[in-house]
Structure prediction request, 323 residues.
Amino acid sequence: MKFLMTTIAGLMCSASLAGACEITLRSSDTHPDGYPTVEGVKAMATEVKEKTDGRICIEVFPSSQLGEEKDTIEQTQFGVIDMVRASFGSFNDIVPVTQLMSLPYLFRSVDHMHAVMDGPIGEEIGAGFEENDLIALAYYDGGSRSFYNSQKPITSIEDLAGMKFRVMQNDVFVDMMSALGANATPMPYGEVYSSIQTGVIDGAENNFPSYDSSGHAEVAKYFTLDEHLMVPELVAMSKASWDKLTPEDQQIIREAARNSAQVQRELWAEQEKASQEKVEAAGAEIITEIDKTPFIEAMAPVYEKYVTTPDAQDLVKRIQDTQ
Prediction:
């Protein structure tokens, strides 16, 4: 009975708080509750509620409750949804400059990516979203993708020669594998485990949490930490919803979003570390001693093919020059 009364009191308190909200913003995420991106937006919601004395509330809808990424981005553009967290890859058709973020080895490290996205270049890229009825609030960490395989440790570009790797259905990734001397095999993610197990492919590429949760570490125990792809994630707000706020409230939301990026990045780093420790304990071999320079130099034809305009070439150079 005591538990029941406590629960009822908690629900009444929650209802009371919810009732105090003058503005409720709905935010969408495809990831499940507890995932770093979801918890990041929740941290933002907490800060916004505190700094507005409960006037503005952000309600987070995880697990694709409001739709898949591309659908919810469109709904956010139209103001049907107030906020969305999505990968840069899902914005490629809307804000073309985001396509450059999928170039292999564009970022030297996670710290380099953060320095780029948190600086003037991130502000410049964000302006492109506003032209498409979205306000870029904060850049989250989507992790880095590396190669793993069932055959041997990969320590040099020569080790990749002739190997077959599953990649996403994307021309850039197919061309990346070709430039590295390997063979790209696009296939659905769900088929990767059995395809490695039966020798249809030698391996695939992804981040530590996916390598762990998918069970791929069981059939492909050699993980080479080359970090060839780091694609930022974005928390964006509908311009229609944004324009209804006072400048003071806009500043509160923007500041809370940027603070939430630090929370999300820390949570993601913890999740990566936990997944790495788990796969290592199960027998996976993590190869960290690798000279990335030949891998990066091999991307010259890929960049030549996809970075074709002077503006794009200038942006890539400025990203690479960022310290």
Summary: Confidence is low (pLDDT under 50) at residues 1-18. Residues 20-142+231-274 form a domain with the D-Maltodextrin-Binding Protein; domain 2 fold (CATH 3.40.190.170). The longest strand covers residues 222-230.
